[in-house]
Design a protein that fits this description.
Layout: E1 7-8, E2 12-13, E3 49-52, E4 55-58, H1 76-84, E5 95-105, H2 114-128, E6 131-135, E7 138-144, E8 147-151, E9 157-160, H3 167-188, E10 190-193, H4 212-224, H5 228-234, E11 237-242, H6 247-267, E12 273-274, E13 277-278, H7 284-288, E14 297-298, H8 310-319, E15 324-327, E16 330-333, H9 339-343, H10 357-364, E17 368-369, E18 371-373, E19 377-383, H11 387-401, H12 404-414, H13 419-432, E20 437-438, E21 441-442, H14 443-461, H15 470-478, H16 482-491, H17 501-504
Length: about 500
């Protein structure tokens, strides 16, 4: 779950003023040309950093409520233009990888407390020259260049990586981050585990992070699903954020990503335990999303409609219920209210006030489908895992989506998949993984083709990146998901004790 409001995680923290420029409509290709994204901002300077002593302190996330001042109300065309402004030429495409991990006390296996997390963040900042991100008096993250470290609601430790050109750079970034975290954490008696769901502890055992937006979500989640609090406090994911060149390119990548997301879920399934016992799923993390908040999650069947484009995604996002608006360094609870009403100046919590583009940017981060559109596309279907899988996940999607031949092969392969078949895979994969029946065979057989497409795509890129697929190649060869391997250990060598998983998946 990614909730960095003013950030585009694969494109760095925004500290500049976002300028609306005319002519973005020329970036569109396809059916849905729209009006240009009009110049509507006053030139407001934004100082996102404060000096305290010798260290830089970055204001609370999101610190952008005053960064852009609307001189006239936004229109739907402006919101469409915002998404379209993500279009960029192929030579500017980058790879942004994000991953979450669970910290725990090495002696007791209990989750890290906020006090321990605060100490860890401060120590990493001092030792490795990261800027601190504060909310009030609480440290809630770190920033260094275009990388950021943030906290999920239950203290899950997340790296949002910089936009990088190659998978070698991506894996080097992951390794550098894990080295820095481990160097400090080991001195504290803290370890980190790469897994998709907290394997041992109940929700009541998980600490609550002091972030205003999470309090609003925590109150709202039980009203819209039975598993939303588990999503917030006990899940971990790895995802990759990728670029597109035009509206038509976005559509093709969105469709390929959605169709194949259940395969990624199967390949990276790594959450078979809940509160010390098998939970009946290979990916409990994925299952949790089926009953978190169906107004903001799922497989988005409208993406496969002939009319789909930026405008249709905006229409969808306008009707996803809001969580909050950020004003004067405070979160205003708007849970369940309509951004469409906000656009018309009719939001009950802020009567007569209109949204800025920052409000729209924040709102887009509170939508959680299997593939998410911002000014780039996020592949969101995978469980967190050990470091090799943190490199393998972006390798899989880069090989498919950044190579024209592989992308077309996937689109051809999935062209006749029905809405019902895509939803069936989404529903069954968390339970049966690669053994899920599909047409005349198993999902394993589809995964074999997909892996070939990914490998061929990486080879054509010419960066010698295919080795990063070795981790998933073994899963495809055996048909055994990472979760099934853990379950074999649990029922065998571990003697039905889940505690050894903390050592097995220790970073």
């Amino acid at each position: 779950m990614v909730l960095m409001s003013q950030t585009s995680p694969s494109h760095g923290i925004r500290t500049e003023v976002f300028q609306y420029k005319s002519g973005y409509a020329s970036l569109f290709s396809g059916r849905n040309n729209t009006k240009a994204f009009r110049h509507r901002t006053s030139n407001v300077t934004f100082s996102g950093k404060l000096k305290r002593g010798s260290k830089v302190i970055v204001a609370a996330s999101p610190p952008t409520d005053d960064a852009v001042v609307a001189t006239e109300p936004l229109t739907k065309e402006d919101l469409v233009g915002y998404l379209a402004s993500g279009c960029k030429s192929k030579e500017k495409w980058r790879i942004g990888t994000e991953h979450e991990k669970l910290g725990f006390d090495l002696k007791t296996l209990r989750p890290m407390t906020y006090e321990q997390i605060s100490h860890l963040l401060n120590a990493i900042s001092e030792r490795f020259d990261w800027d601190k991100v504060m909310e009030g008096d609480n440290i809630i993250g770190l920033q260094q260049g275009k990388q950021s470290i943030s906290l999920e609601p239950g203290g899950q430790f997340e790296l949002s990586g910089a936009p990088l050109e190659t998978l070698h750079q991506t894996c080097a970034e992951v390794n550098s981050h894990l080295y820095q975290v481990k160097a400090v954490a080991e001195e504290m008696g803290i370890g980190f585990i790469g897994i998709g769901f907290q394997p041992k502890w109940e929700r009541k055992d998980i600490p609550i992070m002091p972030k205003g937006r999470y309090e609003i979500m925590r109150n709202y989640m039980p009203k819209v699903g039975s598993l939303g609090l588990d999503m917030m406090f006990r899940t971990c994911t790895v995802q990759v954020n990728l670029d597109f060149s035009s509206e038509a390119d976005m559509i093709r990548k969105f469709r390929a990503g959605l169709a194949l997301q259940p395969i990624a879920t199967a390949l990276f399934a790594n959450s078979p335990f809940t509160e010390g016992k098998p939970n009946g799923y290979l990916s409990m993390r994925s299952q949790i999303w089926t009953d978190t908040d169906n107004n903001r999650s799922g497989m988005l069947p409208f993406v496969f409609d002939d009319s789909f484009g930026f405008e249709q995604y905006v229409e969808y996002a306008l009707d996803v219920p809001m969580y909050f608006v950020y004003r004067k360094k405070k979160y205003i609870d708007c849970a369940g209210l309509s951004f469409r009403d906000f656009l018309a100046g009719k939001l009950p919590s802020l009567p007569g006030e209109y949204p800025t583009i920052n409000d729209w940017e924040n709102h887009l981060t509170t939508i959680f489908p299997e593939v998410r559109l911002k000014r780039y596309l996020e592949m969101r279907g995978a469980d967190g895992g050990p470091w090799r899988r943190l490199c393998a996940l972006p390798a899989l999607w880069v090989g498919i989506l950044y190579d024209e031949t592989s992308l077309q092969n996937v689109l051809d392969m999935t062209a006749d998949w029905t809405r019902e078949e895509r939803q069936m895979l989404r529903n069954k994969v968390p339970v049966t993984g690669l053994k899920t029946p599909f047409r005349d065979g198993l999902l394993k057989h589809v995964a074999e083709e997909v892996l070939t497409f990914a490998k061929d795509g990486l080879e054509r890129r010419g960066y010698k990146e295919t080795g990063f697929l070795n981790e998933v190649a073994e899963v495809v060869r055996t048909g055994l998901t990472p979760a099934e391997t853990l379950l074999e250990l649990y029922h065998g060598k571990w003697g039905q004790n889940v505690d050894p998983v903390f050592e097995e998946l220790l970073y």
